[in-house]
Amino acid sequence: MYDLVIIGGGVAAFAAAIYAGRLQLKTLVIGEELGGTILLTDEIANYPGFKKITGLDLFRKIKEHAQDYDIEILEKRAESIEKQTDAFELFTKDEKLKAKTVIIATGTHLRKLGVPGEDEFANRGVHYCALCDGVFYKNKIVAVVGGSDSAATEALLLTEYAQKVFIIYRKETIRAEPITAQRVDKNEKIEIINNTNVTEIKGEQFLNAVILDNPYKGSNELKLDALFIQVGQIPLSDLAASAGAEINEKKEIIINRASETNIPGLFACGDVIDSKFKQAITGVAQAVTAANSAYEYTTNLPQPNESF
Predict the structure, then answer these.
(1) Most buried among 14, 38, 57, 200, using CB within 10 Å?
(2) Which SS3 state, helix, strand or coil, does residue 290 take?
């Protein structure tokens, strides 16, 4: 019987593990793939204490910190959760675990654009990570679809390789942070195509063009060597929902200020929860709150009579 099982493998999960370890909770972190989407981030410049750090390095530091404490790590997929009278049962493909409390820190996965040709040209011109695949497009013409700070950051990274980078956005103005927007404006390799959607991705063996719903320089076809898609993320909340946690219309887990869900003993944190502002630092803050709430819950929970 664990005091706490943390489901997830990113910075929020391991931040929760740090506090759980300090509070001497018997803790297990379970995640199919450790690291999460932060590994796709080339440069983080807004995490307190680090003027500049990669997503990989930040994850490593938080994970190593957590491992200073007596926690366990299991690299497996949690298939389901069931709430029992005095505990939770968690199931992987081949084993059952029990815990007094659970923290869901499952994060998100990248949203697809959902247009013809996207799946056909996946990894053959269609990509979702500039850090992973940008290096293959030296001196080429590429585009980023999206208007968030993440999309703008992807475009800036791609300028290190590509000859030309378009940002294609469906609204008038991209929603990047001011410092990121200023860097985009000053970069001569970047051109923004506003009020425009990509409606189709075309090519032969590899992507060679996209179709736009508004003409660019008199044509609805834009020749490209690659398209990087940054149109948001989808919360990985199915596990929590199957356990009875309340989910909003965006598939985010609803929590209160103590990181509690509607199910006693079940907590959530990070990109999977219903916060408008999603950053590594906010996810970490929610995570340590969740760990403290789990500690308070376990210390007030009567000890079960059953031996596990």
Answers:
(1) 14
(2) helix
